[in-house]
Design goal:
The structure is a homodimer. Chain A is an alpha/beta fold. Helix content of chain A is 35%, strand content 14%. Chain A has a 5-stranded parallel β-sheet with strand order 2-1-3-4-5. A 4-stranded parallel β-sheet of chain A has the order 8-7-6-9. Chains A, B: Keywords: Oxidoreductase.
Amino acid sequence: MAQDLPQLLIIHPPLSLIHIESQLSRKFHLLGAWESELPLDKFLTTYARSVQAMLSSPITRVNADLLRLLPGLKLVATPTAGVNNIDLVECRQRGISVTTSGSAFSEDVADIAVGLLIDVQSKSQQQIGGKRVGIVGLGKIGSEVAKRLEAFGCIVSYNSRRKKQALPYLFYSNVHELAANTDALIICCALTDQTRHMINKEELVRCLVHGEIGGAGLDVFENEPHVPQELFALDNVFLSPHKAALTPESFERSNRIVIANLEAFFSNKPSITPFNG
Amino acid sequence: MAQDLPQLLIIHPPLSLIHIESQLSRKFHLLGAWESELPLDKFLTTYARSVQAMLSSPITRVNADLLRLLPGLKLVATPTAGVNNIDLVECRQRGISVTTSGSAFSEDVADIAVGLLIDVQSKSQQQIGGKRVGIVGLGKIGSEVAKRLEAFGCIVSYNSRRKKQALPYLFYSNVHELAANTDALIICCALTDQTRHMINKEELVRCLVHGEIGGAGLDVFENEPHVPQELFALDNVFLSPHKAALTPESFERSNRIVIANLEAFFSNKPSITPFNG
């Protein structure tokens, strides 16, 4: 009986749920708040006070208000790479673990980043080989981007919180210095309080309109699905609808990781892909 | 005096002439047929009967009719990679050397080919990593494409006139067999009588419309600037206006090679980049 399985809270269904719902429901007793007629706080206090694990979605705001209603929570598993919807400080204070999709999406996202770079360079008839490309954030995605750029003959440098001793690329501790010393920038960092508005929209559009920046390729926007209208008018801008990661293979990897993290949690084993910020 | 310099015949000005005309005219006595009011045959018999070297352009048809009017010709230098406008058999019979732009454009063209692949795969939400990609023609461009695809985690195989022993990719002697064993094909071969219509337009469009092919990225068309209208209606087709090679850096490389080939010829030295078909 489902009631005998460990409980898994899902407030909003993540995009990939459709692919794993049947698999999840064989292993867990799913508490789907979005399917209930009760208001969320009522649903949580009625059904989920004792829940230990939650599968989050990018639109679920896992903040202090929510966590206060879930005193038993010990794990937030998100099927995404980003954790910008999760209050990590609050989770840490409450002893709640956060797991992500790890590198499930990294290669596909890197492919699209490089594709956008080629589109932009090609539009402005710029050769890619020999160009100095700066990567902001040399994590999993940034490293995959760097690997590809090397094959194109680019000179790769990067900015990151820490210098990565094992990697041969030139490190800049300051993102402005990186920008000043490169022909193109690729932003691969996670969205955090520190990185939010690192690139200012008004400044970006102004630079593009005045030709101070030769072009831009964008897959992610601040207020999706809204995209700043000014960008559509610029023919040196390539827009992609935040879909870099949406391949069936990426989803499959992410789904396997979500399930592995949940099973590890309920077996008292370490997380497969803990968030380490 | 220009008259003392070696003669160089130019029937139609190649795109890059504007960048090297002054440099060429310091070294050669330029005979510009396109600037003359005389009809071409008259111009050639009047001014160019004794000319030994010619700078060709993609629109100059270097065929038997033309060569008959140029009995002294010993060199056709083309600033392009393609030689489909040149009757190579006729040149060989007349002992005329043909030089090309060598690999001046190869890296830029490879970049765009990979960019189109990413566009097409991304449009259909297909992962690139792990995909089997077949390269038709593993010459200079094909090899650069292969190098880039390896960084994306693709499994590269190829069809070519000859197996390249030094390269690690799987060889198919038959292009249909290559197509049957790969997820995507990239056409990198030269246009010759053997390769013309290897991909049939009607067949290509039919396959795209019926979803038998997931998508296509095209930078070159048979009757440029005309592009088959059916292609514009297909949202799984990415079109680029034969501009893959048009970066300033590629032109500069090509110009240097043209001049080096001409200088080598007039100093009785071997060509820098002879065409070897």
